[in-house]
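Researcher: Good morning. I'm working through a list of sequences from a screen, and I'd like to move beyond sequence-only analysis. For each chain I'm collecting a predicted structure so we can compare shapes side by side. This is the next one on the list. No need for commentary yet; just the structure.
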Amino acid sequence: VAFTVYGDAAETTDRVERINRKHVRAGLELDVSVHTAYHLPFDTATGRGGGVSYEGCLLISGGGPLSGCAGFESEQRKGASSIIWAFFEPRYLLLRSASTGDLGVSFRFSRGNVSGESDTPALLGVGAFYQHYIWETPRGTGAALRLNLSYRLTWNSGPSSPTIRNRADVERVGVGIWVIP
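Model: Good morning. Structure tokens for this chain:
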């Protein structure tokens, strides 16, 4: 039994050229992530575990290395109130590879809402992501699986905390899929 492995340089070049075309594309992204434990001022218990988050966003890409995602995240925390976050996440591709996928960085700006609380949590985050294309068309549309790792700095602001305080650092790992029709 013989196996032959080859690469198609023309196809690889064509894919990179399609990605680099300067046209705006819009799509949908869905993610699930797990995160470590942290405390915000309205959390009174100690020793809580992490939780799970579900998010969806509108993905906008200009065909170059810069893209962004704006949407909502529902964060479920063990033993604590859930938080609904509205967020904007600019992303920048650092490395593109037709055979292995893309590698990039992301920044997250977010405000949260906790039922029954007057304080409003805020979040800044930085992360890294890897995305692998499932399929792609000559028009630059397609779908990809996405793996993301992030470090988020969370604090609380509101009537009972007028300055940045009660900082909590959170590590997250998530998987998702995006589709640009």
